[in-house]
C-alpha cells in the first residue's frame, strides 16, 4: 500500500519544489547575464575562496560542491580555460589534483558576489520571517544529514 501525501503535505512539497527550482534558475540566469558565470561555477569559486590557500583537492571540492568527480573535472577544465582556476598535481602523491583560485577567479567572484547576495536577499531571505528562515535551515540540515 502506498502512503500518499495528504493535501497539505502535497501543497507544501510542491511549493518547495517550485520555489527551489525557480530561485536556483533566477540565481543562475542573473549570474550568467551579469557576470558570465553559472551558479555552479560561482559555487566552485566560493568554495575555493573559503579554502586554505584558496585551493582544494579535486575530490574534496567535488564532495563540497555536490559534483561527481568526472563532472567537476569537466567544469574545472572550462573554468581553467577562462583563467578562473588552475589545476596542479598534489606534491605529496602526484596522483591527486589540486584546484586553485586564480587572481582572475578571485576578482570575478568579488564582482559577482554582491549580485548573488542581492538575489538571495531579495527573493529568499527578506521574504521570510526570521523564525521561518530558521525552520527552513533546520529542515534542510536534517534532509542533508539524512542524505549524507
UniProtKB/TrEMBL annotation:
One of its GO terms (biological process) is response to stress. GO terms for molecular function: DNA-binding transcription factor activity. It comes from the Bacteria. Gene3D superfamilies: Winged helix-like DNA-binding domain superfamily/Winged helix DNA-binding domain. PROSITE patterns: HTH_MARR_2 (PS50995). InterPro entries: HTH_MarR-typ, MarR/SlyA-like, WH-like_DNA-bd_sf, WH_DNA-bd_sf. Pfam families: MarR (PF01047). Residues 1-145 form the HTH marR-type domain. This is Transcriptional regulator. The lineage of its organism: Bacteria, Bacillati, Actinomycetota, Actinomycetes, Pseudonocardiales.
Amino acid at each position: 500500500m502506498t502512503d500518499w501525501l495528504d493535501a497539505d503535505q502535497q501543497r507544501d512539497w510542491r511549493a518547495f519544489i517550485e520555489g527551489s527550482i525557480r530561485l536556483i534558475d533566477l540565481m543562475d540566469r542573473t549570474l550568467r547575464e551579469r557576470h558570465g558565470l553559472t551558479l555552479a561555477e560561482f559555487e566552485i569559486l566560493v568554495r575555493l575562496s573559503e579554502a586554505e590557500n584558496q585551493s582544494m583537492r579535486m575530490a574534496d571540492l567535488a564532495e563540497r560542491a555536490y559534483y561527481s568527480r568526472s563532472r567537476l573535472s569537466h567544469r574545472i577544465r572550462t573554468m581553467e580555460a577562462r583563467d578562473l582556476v588552475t589545476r596542479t598535481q598534489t606534491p605529496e602523491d602526484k596522483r591527486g589534483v589540486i584546484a586553485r583560485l586564480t587572481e582572475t577567479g578571485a576578482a570575478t567572484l568579488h564582482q559577482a558576489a554582491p549580485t548573488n547576495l542581492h538575489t538571495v536577499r531579495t527573493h529568499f531571505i527578506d521574504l521570510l520571517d526570521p523564525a521561518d528562515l530558521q525552520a527552513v535551515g533546520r529542515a534542510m540540515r536534517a534532509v542533508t544529514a539524512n542524505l549524507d
